[in-house]
Amino acid sequence: MDLDKPLGSVIQGSLSQGLEVRLHPDVSVEDMRVGKFLVVQGARSRFFCMLTDVTLGTASTRIFANPPDPGNTFLQEVLAGTGTFGTIDLTPMLMFTPEPEEPISYSANSKAKKTKGGKNARAAEDKSDSTASLPLLASLTPQSSSTIELMPVKTIPSHFSQVHEASERDFRAVFGWEDDPHRRNFAIGQPIDMDVPICVDLDRFVERSNGVFGKSGTGKSFLTRLLLSGIIRKQAGVNLIFDMHSEYGWEAVREGKQFSTVKGLRQLFPGQVQIYTLDPESTKRRGVRDAQDLFISFDQIDVEDLMLVRGELNLSEASLENAIILRNEFGKSWITRLLSMSNMEIQEFCETKMGSKSSIMALQRKLNRLEELKYIRNTCPHNYVGQILDSIDAGKHVVIEFGSQSNMLSYMLATNVIARRIHAAYVQKAEKFLQSKNPSDRPQQLVITIEEAHRFLDPSTVSQTIFGTIAREMRKYFVTLLVVDQRPSGIDNEVMSQIGTRITALLNDEKDIDAIFTGVSGAQSLRSVLSKLDSKQQALILGHAVPMPVVIRTRPYDETFYAEIGDVPWEEMPTAAVFKAAESAKADLGF
Q1: I need a labelling partner for 538 at 20 to 30 A (CA). Which of 33, 194, 238, 503 fits?
Q2: Least confident range of 52-56, 180-184, 444-448, 477-481
Q3: Rounded to an integer, what distance in angstroms lies between the CA atom of residue 112 and that of residue 94?
Q4: Tens of pLDDT, residues 347-378
């Protein structure tokens, strides 16, 4: 399609409801797809818009009453564009107003111009005033070095303003390009109808907690792999990934009719990713190399951890209250002491400490299930959580595999126990840095990835989990979340309102769609866009890490991606490349 050719004219609209555009007679309504990125050229400003609806219109009700005969193509052609026409609804997302004396520049090498007066200064004021109270719809920050000054939309174009296809330079000016040396941009996909990269600003992405949502089978795991790969390649932070189904660290099965596998993060970045396993036997059977064993002892489990899994263990409120009594009496070893107590000892304890014998016996009986978990030990002579922290401090990305221990009891218990201790260590590191102001004391930005997030963040348990605390703290202690879930409606509204960037594949449930837009005003027009995504390889991105909401075709996670982003192991590199790297290393050492 000719990008300079106008598609239609603005005929009416409002700031709150968006714009209605009548298509020109030579433009087919079937070429207009929901989620398309279009540009409206007003008299003074340029508006970046998303297409949110497509409608058929007629100039007279007589056409409804007496439509042309299906075989009368001549009459159909006569009516097309005059008696019958197509209209589209656009939602303006961004605007900019160039200086009257200056042409619009999209130069990738020029810096944005700022003056003490004039329109650019007023634009900056408008932008800062709006973003102070702006919800998480978009960042409003261009991810490139172009000279445009993006602003929130505070007006609309005049009647009969022309609508055009967005060009490649429009996308690059707004979303930038992956090789920009001044930014950590990562190409996560392309527009639905163009081969131009759409980039996420990873520095802004890791600043806040984020979410990947979509119903089962829509590619959430592939989207998550893409994001984690980008964070590793661009060194935007370090990852701690609780890999429930063992599909991020090592190779995993690709969905499809024919069996095939995709590489895991350890295979893409062998020197930067460390795998820990809670089920060493399963990990060995899968052929994972150099995985570290990980165990948890009873003295690392606190009452707060049991509150999270009370449903899986069927613990009553009385049992949890008596667990607190036991902890206060025996300290960290309370579970070991409880499991070893006889009925007589429980009776004596209850008589002296005012406990409930029936509740404590029920607690003892149900906690015996924990001994069935492969990674639970009475005591651990080695500090495994400290070892994980050492890896993170060294800039290593950590994947914790669960293997056969992927039931909800096992996953929720281990994830909460480990994350709680790592968060406590990060709080101490952050407080030390805030006191010393020494850059060497600054902790590595940590992104914790959890699956089945609604289990940890639902309204009834969010106050009892460390993940609720992390989500509310945002980046205060340099720790953020990447939550992966198919039921966003199960996540507490307060937590959802703190999710900075939301990458959402197809959702059908109305409650889930409502949850995606929790805390986001002005996003109702995007509901229809979200509900009409393809079931595979399409997603809607909105929030802190992108300048404006956009629908993408997700980047393929294939051999091309491996070559573009991964580290090739020495043994797989061509001999000439190995010798060249060796000569370079010798030169660096002075030989």
Answers
A1: 238
A2: 180-184
A3: 17
A4: 988 888 888 899 999 999 999 999 888 899 88
* Residues 298, 360: Cα–Cα separation, whole Å: 17
SS3 label, residue 128: helix
Separation in Å, CA 444 to CA 205, 387, 422, 475, 482: 15, 16, 12, 12, 16
Cβ-based neighbours of 554, under 8 Å, separated by 6 or more: 188, 189, 219, 222, 223, 226, 537, 538, 539
How would you class 57 by CB atoms within 10 Å of its CB: exposed for 0-12, middle for 13-18, buried for 19 or more? middle
Largest CA distance in the chain: 98
Rounded CA separation 550/35 (Å): 7
Q: H/E element holding 351?
A: helix 343-353
Residue with tokens 């409003």: 140
Distance separating alpha carbons of residues 542 and 136, to the nearest angstrom: 7
d(CA 486, CA 452): 7
Q: How many helical (H) and strand (E) elements, i.e. helices and strands, does the chain have?
A: 23, 22
Mean pLDDT of the chain: 84
pLDDT in tens, 108-126: 443 444 444 444 444 444 4
Residue 511: helix, strand or coil by DSSP?
helix
3-state secondary structure 511-522: HHHHHHCCCCCC
Distances (CA, A) of 552 to 34, 194, 317: 12, 10, 47
Pick from 520, 438, 449: nearest CA to 479: 449
Which contiguous run of DSSP H or E holds residue 205?
helix 202-207
- Intra-chain end-to-end CA distance of the chain, in Å: 58
The sign of the dihedral angle between the CA atoms of 30, 35, 37, 41 is: positive
DSSP type of residue 53: E
For residue 92, the one-letter residue type is: P
Distance from C-alpha of 75 to C-alpha of 59, rounded to nearest angstrom: 15
Phi-psi region at 72: left, alpha or beta (left = phi > 0; alpha = psi -120 to 50):
beta
The first and second tokens of residue 25, run together, are 């007679």
Q: What is the DSSP letter of 30?
A: G
In order of 366, 369, 488, 512, the CA distances from 509 in angstroms are 36, 35, 10, 5
Overall average pLDDT of the 206-214 stretch: 93
